[in-house]
Design goal:
Elements: E1 40-45, H1 47-56, E2 58-59, H2 65-70, E3 77-84, E4 93-103, E5 108-109, E6 125-138, H3 140-143, E7 164-165, H4 168-179, H5 181-188
Parallel strand pairs: 1-3
Antiparallel strand pairs: 1-7, 2-6, 3-4, 4-6, 5-6
Length: 191
């Protein structure tokens, strides 16, 4: 018997008719059309980049975008956190959950990018999305309680390589916060 990488069980040569879809139960029991489980992801964007994503119906990320966008699958839910107003400036900070979107197609190479180049960086890969909900929920303190958050002061290091997969508990925290969103947004937004 031949063993797979690192001696982890027998090596199986897949052929198309032998591939089975593994379905793990989830609280909300929502599935992709193919029967696989839907995932929730958190992405971090600047406000100016999010406005382009929203307008174009595309999710684009910076460095290594093709690989990072490839982590998600069609039908996945994406929670959009806007960290600052402008991509090239650290201030002013926004720190709000701005939208919940759904991935609606595969990663694709763009003929023409809606995002301006930054230095030698070109933004040529994106995924189509549909925005399901727009919001303006102050989220910095909530993010610090998420499963991916490390210890202060480096609590947000995992966000640098977003998208970050969210756990069911993370999603429940976002959903609970959105239930009270109009009140929270009205009391914490500055003019």
């Amino acid at each position: 018997m031949r063993y797979g990488p690192l001696g982890c069980g027998p090596r199986i040569r897949p052929c198309q008719r032998d591939i089975a879809t593994v379905v793990r139960p989830r609280d909300d029991d929502r599935r992709y059309p193919s029967g696989a489980e839907m995932e929730d992801w958190l992405v971090v964007l600047s406000e100016d980049n999010w406005s382009i994503c929203d307008r174009e119906g595309l999710l684009g990320l910076g460095r290594d975008a093709e690989r990072r966008l490839g982590r998600m699958s069609e039908g996945d839910r994406v929670w959009v956190y806007v960290n600052r107003k402008h991509v090239d400036h650290q201030v002013p900070r926004v720190q709000e959950l701005r939208a919940v979107a759904r991935v609606t197609g595969p990663v694709r190479r763009l003929e023409r990018s809606p995002w301006r180049p930054r230095g030698d960086q070109r933004f040529l890969f994106a995924r189509p999305i549909t925005v399901e909900r727009r919001c303006a929920l102050p989220a910095i303190e909530l993010l610090k309680t998420m499963s991916f958050a490390g210890r202060p002061p480096a609590w947000g290091m995992r966000l640098l390589s977003a998208p970050v997969r969210l756990t069911a508990d993370d999603v429940a925290k976002f959903q609970a916060a959105l239930q009270g969103e109009p009140k929270a947004a009205a009391t914490t937004r500055s003019p």
